[in-house]
Amino acid sequence: MWKEAVFHRPEGPYAHPAGPRELRVRLRAKRGDLFSCHLFHGDRYGGEEEGDILRLEKAGSDELFDWFEGVIPSATRRLRYVFYLEGEEGGLWYGEKGFAADRREAGAFQYPYICEGDLYRVPDWAKDGVVYQIFPDRFFNGDEGNDPEGTDPWSAAARPRPDSFYGGDLRGIIEKLPYLEALGVNVLYLTPIFLSPSNHKYDTTDYYRVDPAFGDAETLKELVRLAHQRGIRVLLDAVFNHAGYGFFAFQDVLQRGEDSPYADWFFIEDFPVVTTPRPNYETFANGVWTMPKLNTAHPEVRAYLLDVAEYWTREAEIDGWRLDVANEVDHRFWRAFRDRVKEVNPEALIVGEIWHDAGPWLQGDQFDSVMNYLFRDAVLDFFAAGRIGADRFDALLTRTRMLYPEQAHFAMFNLLGSHDTERFLTTCGGRLERMRLAVLFQMTYPGMPMIYYGDEVGMCGGPDPDCRRPMMWEEERQNRELLAHYRKLIALRKELRPLRRGDFRTWLVDPLRNLYGFVRWDGESCVGVLFNNSPHEHRVEVDLHPFGGAEKLRDALSGKTIDAAGRSRMPWTLPPYQGAILTPVE
Ligand code: ARE
Ligand code: CA
């Protein structure tokens, strides 16, 4: 046994409450090294030995490791446990004191108490969410009367400059709600809408004012109300890492210098404050002078921003927040933010913008989930660029899943692209078959699929600002087949519960032919999804065990059925760049 590779700690992704009286436990070991992994557990105040036994299942693997996982109940919420690991040379105990042949010598891991206050509660609706991201200036112009000066004519063929305006607004979103409903999405995420001089509005002048180019507070309320009537929720963008140059407090510092009561709201190096040759204050990224960084540890700043969050959550009855540059703001601030927002609306969703490992923010006390850029990286490498094989793809997905507590997964924003990245179809080099297969994956994987406006009709675009072209509304220019593909997959996700709420297990990994597959099941039914990410037709032998004796399987995409009675494996032919969604037929 490779003891060096074995790892567990009674915290974070390795041990977290699955509910008020349940603990999810994970153990990592060298890939292929353990035959089995059992967990002996009991009450911490109980007798000598932990009397209950659970066999942990292999939840996934990457190139180096296997992860074993299981959920143990605890009537008293006070847990003590020790692992029994079996490998080629026999069994060993693994506990708080390390490895031992003798159980008591290994010691027991302690999970002292499953505290009510530490439970990771993510709104249940998130599991059924399909998100649509809107960059308001570019979605639809519903009111030409509010267009900013110098607004360019609407054209999906336009090449936006960093400072272009196209006149999109909240009225435009309201008018397009029927389109969004027909597409099947049920969550909108809007990039910032508060007063700001830019088209993206990440440099806030006034957090309490909807930018007049987009509408006003009434338009926002109307949008939320009408969206709700259609079963669509609305999330806004909280830009609290930095304010804009025009923010009243920063303006005061510019005018009064050191004497300004707001001097400590920012990180000013010396006075007077200047923007050239370089800003002498901290900003977003490297010297973006229009975005002075806010000191969120300052009690007044904190109070100010928390009031803003509470105000809009309450006033506009929004359904949550996406948090800009979330990983550069202190954890204490986000904990307070969560408490405030959830107090007003316990069903609000909080999604951080973090492009990398977001473990520290996903423990239940800060965010519900994050924009899942690690998911995007993997999908991009496998489907769009064809840079990695099915084995590496599976490894990347597993690693990402194992970084976080279970609760976060079903609420992830699984994106193929955003207003900050090149568009997915462009990354695919325009090869639609690749995009279609990636979308099949996105719509069947655990977590909320997030569609960046326009991707569904085949829009292209390079990095910011080119990825922000005005929405292509002319039907004759839209890719209607791609749109139909999106609609069909969203409808299937709604129809097949396991795709939204089911557990995930890898089903097929064939790096030589570049085939991939997984199953999802929710305790009642099972769905198997297959992908042929290659230019050749392939025949696969599908393992039927997950379907537990189903007589017939049907592919929800092609409608094809196949007889499975009495078999443990079944041949299935996958055309180039095609997939299948297999479900048992009653
Ligand atoms: C403008 C220009 C850009 C230029 C940039 C730099 O348009 O072409 O590169 O300035 O000066 C907003 C606007 C942008 C604008 C920016 C600055 O939307 O158009 O860019 O303000 O004025 C990192 C952060 C992440 C951040 C991205 C952009 O971690 O938080 O960079 N994303 C949010 C929003 C943006 C927004 C801001 C932050 C600022 O979503 O839209 O920009 O409020 C790697 C790194 C990541 C990095 C990522 C992208 O993967 O690991 O940390 O994200 O690349 O660069
Ligand atoms: Ca307008």
TrEMBL record:
One of its GO terms (biological process) is carbohydrate metabolic process. Gene3D superfamilies: Glycosidases (3.20.20.80), Golgi alpha-mannosidase II (2.60.40.1180), Immunoglobulins (2.60.40.10), Oligo-1,6-glucosidase, Domain 2 (3.90.400.10). One of its GO terms (molecular function) is hydrolase activity, hydrolyzing O-glycosyl compounds. Residues 133-493 form the Glycosyl hydrolase family 13 catalytic domain. SMART domains: Aamy. InterPro entries: GH (IPR017853), GH13_cat_dom (IPR006047), Glyco_hydro_13_lg-like_dom (IPR004185), Glyco_hydro_b (IPR013780), Ig-like_fold (IPR013783), Ig_E-set (IPR014756), Malt_amylase-like_C (IPR032091), O16G_dom_2 (IPR045857). Keywords: Glycosidase, Hydrolase. PANTHER family: ALPHA-AMYLASE FAMILY MEMBER (PTHR10357), MALTODEXTRIN GLUCOSIDASE (PTHR10357:SF210). Belongs to the glycosyl hydrolase 13 family. This is Glycosidase.
